[in-house]
Amino acid sequence: RPGQETPRQYLDDASGDMSRRLNGTRWIRLGESLCQDLDDASGDMSGRLNGTRWIRLGESLCQDLDDAVGDPNRRLNGTRWIRLGESLRQDLDDAVGDPNRRLNGRRWIRLGESLRQDLDDAVGDPSRRLNGQRWTTFGESLRQDLDDAVGDPSRRLNGRRWIRLGESLRQDLDDAVGDPNRRLNGTRWIRLGESLRQDLDDAVGDPNRRLNGTRWIRLGESLRQDLDDAVGDPNRRLNGTRWIRLGESLRQDLDDAIGDPSRRLNGTRWIRLGESLRQDLDDAVGDPNRRLNSTRWITLGESLRQDLDDAVGDPNRRLNGTRWIRLGESLRQDLDDAVGDPNRRLNGTRWITLGESLRQDLDDAVGDPNRRLNGTRWIRLGESLRQDLDDAVGDPNRRLNGTRWIRLGESLRQDLDDAVGDPNRRLNGTRWIRLGESLRQDLDDAIGDPSRRLNGTRWIRLGESLRQDLDDAVGDPNRRLNSTRWITLGESLRQDLDDAVGDPNRRLNGTRWIRLGESLRQDLDDAVGDPNRRLNGTHWITLGESLRQDLDDAVGDPSRRLNGRRWITLGESLRQDLDDAVGDPSRRLNGQRWIRLGESLRQDLDDAVGDPSRRLNGQRWTTFGESLRQDLDDAVGDPNRRLNGTHWIRLGESLRQDLDDAVGDPNRRLNGTRWIRLGESLRQDLDDAVGDPNRRLNGTRWITLGESLRQDLDDASGEPSGCLNGVAFLRQCTRQGFEDVPVHHLRMHLK
């Protein structure tokens, strides 16, 4: 039972392996001592994960974590607590059998001793780097950069990227990439340094051009003070994925940005502001207390004028989402600088008040100490958070869980007692549900009915047969929630639904029911009463000693894998997979819609759009090459395949072997939601990808960067080097039979 063991034992029980780490939606291997981990990882024990960002907390991270959860080895990764360990090299060895592999967002790239070697392994060109979902070319050499990135304990995950936190920004950048002039700009690495002109010269040969999402926009010349270490100017700051001017004069700032001092980016639109920030808000909404909350204007606290003065006129302000907060030596001082009130902190996109007494904090926030922001709504929490927020704002055992503060520590029962006054209740997304010895009891405790389950933001009925459940839910057993709409599913939905609830292998995956392990009751028992079960988003999966065993424990079938928020079946043939997936081998989920597939992909596409050369490109159909029958055999004929987003890739001992197992070609790599060719040289890679090194994916379209479009299109649609676009897999243009899977693709599977 949680609460009877030590924090270390509790962690062991949580995942069955204290060396596994949740990075986004994937588990990587870490090790034993968080103190040593952080030394290896960031060299700065003051960083703390705030959601997907690291902020600076007290004097010592070791002490912080001890205070945070009573165990220095636990760290909050988003809304989950995971485990760190001995050394980064050993961790990565344990994660993928290759210490040179690192998660870049949701993809694994090669890191290691030198960036040149890494990139040689990745794309055969040391100048290429993953730019979000695209590969771009950067400057002279990153060999030293990557040496410092992987071999330097000063790196810290910023969301899904590693940045440097510490005493000075210049030193941070030195430690982060071995080059103080390089900084992550959103999802891309750009050159920074003493002057912006030099930086941009290195990046694009033009100091006035800057990446704005997927477009290049014009920016100003040199930047001043607090950003001298970052870009040479304290008045420039990243606003999302764009650089805007801040500082002494907003008019001058906007003149540099768009030539109009009165316009400011609001999400993806430009709105009009004014000369001073107070005047700006007056001009924008006629109320100086209103602030942009994403695409809406909300009203902020007591002295917005002073807050905004600190925001624009202070070089130590940093963007937190769409707002500027203060970073610095101490958290209290940070908050003082951030909003002129040390008790106020950003909670999601709003400012709430924290401090010595949560009652007082919440009194300041909503006048009720028991109410807390839950996303965009205020909900009621438990008894008293006064002691709780003493170390985060005053209590080591309270930590932000998404946009909520919950209690962590030695005993889960005690933790939840402190969090909501009930040891059996746990946050499930934006709601609190009951957990405990058995799911039936849990649900009884949660809503008084073991047959009802949270489906997104609504409760639907579950039970012995889904037909009855859906009758209770919508009166029609053939309709299924697809996000926020009800759609009708396949040919024999009754059997499907029987499998969904009357079958122990079905489990709610987001807003859909999928197949899990041996028996539903046992599964749920394992979920709550088994130390190897862990929440994956809103679902419980099983972790353990080996990946094969993990999958066996997770779904009772090593051939079933999460496809986004849905579980599909993989294995020997796609036909059987689809049979297992929806009871109809011809139907496949296309985003939020079901399309018809079949025995061969040519026939599938004929059924889907009447043209075997067309492939889903996001939500649009584009045209590609000849036959994917063999491709799909290769894609799902190997139990060692892993979903990368909506695509299946192969992980294992070495990157080359991984790619061999993944697509039968070590030179193919996922580029966002598409497969492109990589290899010895970038020119050859692009030749393999589209037949022309000058072609590059621009979002969901292919554009030409170079000489010959005709050859590009020939190779893109008529040659085996073409890329699949959408939810399918790499086309190798083979006409072999559907079950004629090449032996080398099944080698690991057969083993």
Please, could you describe this protein's structure?
By secondary structure, the chain is of the alpha+beta class. Among the domains are: 179 residues, no CATH class; 66 residues, no CATH class; 188 residues, no CATH class. It has 26 helices and 52 strands. The strands form 26 sheets. Strands 1-2 form a two-stranded antiparallel sheet. Strand 33 and strand 34 form a beta hairpin.
List keywords for this structure.
751 residues, alpha+beta, two-stranded antiparallel sheet, two-stranded antiparallel ribbon, 52 strands, disordered N terminus, disordered C terminus
How are the SSEs placed, and which strands pair?
Layout: H1 7-15, E1 20-23, E2 26-29, H2 34-41, E3 47-50, E4 53-56, H3 61-69, E5 74-77, E6 80-83, H4 88-96, E7 101-104, E8 107-110, H5 115-122, E9 128-131, E10 134-137, H6 143-150, E11 155-158, E12 161-164, H7 169-177, E13 182-185, E14 188-191, H8 196-204, E15 209-212, E16 215-218, E17 236-239, E18 242-245, H9 250-258, E19 263-266, E20 269-272, H10 277-285, E21 290-293, E22 296-299, H11 304-312, E23 317-320, E24 323-326, H12 331-339, E25 344-347, E26 350-353, H13 358-365, E27 371-374, E28 377-380, E29 398-401, E30 404-407, H14 412-420, E31 425-428, E32 431-434, H15 439-447, E33 452-455, E34 458-461, H16 466-473, E35 479-482, E36 485-488, H17 493-501, E37 506-509, E38 512-515, H18 520-529, E39 533-536, E40 539-542, H19 547-555, E41 560-563, E42 566-569, H20 574-582, E43 587-590, E44 593-596, H21 601-609, E45 614-617, E46 620-623, H22 629-636, E47 641-644, E48 647-650, H23 655-663, E49 668-671, E50 674-677, H24 682-690, E51 695-698, E52 701-704, H25 709-718, H26 743-750
Antiparallel strand pairs: 1-2, 3-4, 5-6, 7-8, 9-10, 11-12, 13-14, 15-16, 17-18, 19-20, 21-22, 23-24, 25-26, 27-28, 29-30, 31-32, 33-34, 35-36, 37-38, 39-40, 41-42, 43-44, 45-46, 47-48, 49-50, 51-52
Helix pairs in contact: 6-7, 23-26, 24-25
